FAD binding domain-containing protein (Bdellovibrio svalbardensis), 504 residues
Amino acid sequence: MSQTAKRNHIVVNINGETLCVRGDEAFQPLAQFLRNVLNKVGTKVVCAEGDCGACTVLASSLENSKWSSFRAINSCIAPVFLFDQAVLVTVEGVRTQEALSEVQEKMREFHGGQCGFCTPGMICSMSQLAEDCAKDQTEVTEKKARNYLTGNLCRCTGYEPILNAATHIELPKWVSLASRYLTETLKTEFQALDGDVEIQGENRILSIPTTLASALAIKAARPQVRIVAGATDLGVVVNKGKMILSEVLVLNKVAELRKLESSATQDFIGAQVTLSEVETFIRDVHPELKRLLHIFASPQIKNQATLLGNILNGSPIGDSIPALMALEAEIQFASTKGTRSVPLKRFYKGYKVFDKTDDEIAVGLAIPALTKPGNQQFWLHKFFKVSMRKDLDISAVTFAAVIKMDNNHIAEARLAMGGIGPCVIRLTELEQKLQGKTFELQTFEEAGVLAASLITPISDLRASQEYRRLVTANLFKKCFHELSVEMNPSGKSSDKSKAEAVCP
């Protein structure tokens, strides 16, 4: 294919069959395409919001001329156009031609399905579990099974038989999906398709460039075009009829936006890097941020969503924003006019109002390196998410503290909170008051009281105004106690007063 030629269709391989998808079909949610066009009705749709996992399928794509590992995704909110040159496996494709897969056999043996509606999604999530454990030569533990099934809800069977099925998977009997579907022949076929894609639907246009220069030219020519990354938020809005994607720019084929780089001065995360990839990348350099991302969302969401997408969405309860704001992260933008960096603490001007021009594309996020404990001056981190349940829930309040210690005094404090106003904010007034204060419970108690008086929360379905103020004050005490334990590995608080229950 010539450098200037543009394909007018999506090419995707589903359960071993390569398909061309044209026109309006490319804009459909993947689950609807599977069910209504291909008659693969094993994939179910319940919530259409990416919450229940009944729609789970497995996806792999070519990255740097290599197949990525299969990852579970929510097909109900993911448009078909995200899967050009991708391989998808549905519940129908998990089984071999001869028999059920090892995962399916164990679900049958341990009675893991009752009504069966959620079972296909469970099968796909457990198939990723088996695929990963077989590849890494690690055992399937109950903890792993629970983690992989976080995004799959069951309302009738109960999880005991499902977990029994997972923990009894015999990995030597598992037939690798990669060996069955990710072939060299298919790779060669896909690589021959390299080039930009442009699809015209009925009153719709879709552009999938392969270079940043091409993407910037499209954005300059059509500033109103909607950039779509993982679609884990937009997909819900479209499904609920609140938006029509008429002009779309998809960036997942732009290699420049998939960078992950670490240096002595900063860590750089490209705009198209998924949350799952970020969680792995920062495991050692930012363990507290990694802990937060672990409970950020379900595996299906994290396998599709991007970190930059969460930031640019600008929700006042965006889970990653307070932590990254306290870490002094900067967004890097590019346009046909040049590049610039915007500190995250200055990016949000109000509710859904950003320091961003219409012709710009976010290319990545830079997180400055911080001094680790061990020197006289070092940084401590603590990030909290308060929600009704631990996993897969929208936050009521989010909290981030990045504190520079000098012996037993606070040399510098960076504090950010979400869910307490129209956008995530830095508590700059409080940061100044904490500078030079002794690291003790009283300091944090007083800070919490002041913070509760400075914020402007509202009452909504997730929490009342009064609750948010109370939680804000309590989170400062919780922050002190947890940091005290980190500073004193013996587990004793650095404050002589008794530790008290501080957070619901």
Remarks:
- Residues 471 and 503 are 7 Å apart (CA to CA).
- The domain at 377-487 is CATH 3.30.390.50 (Enolase-like; domain 1).
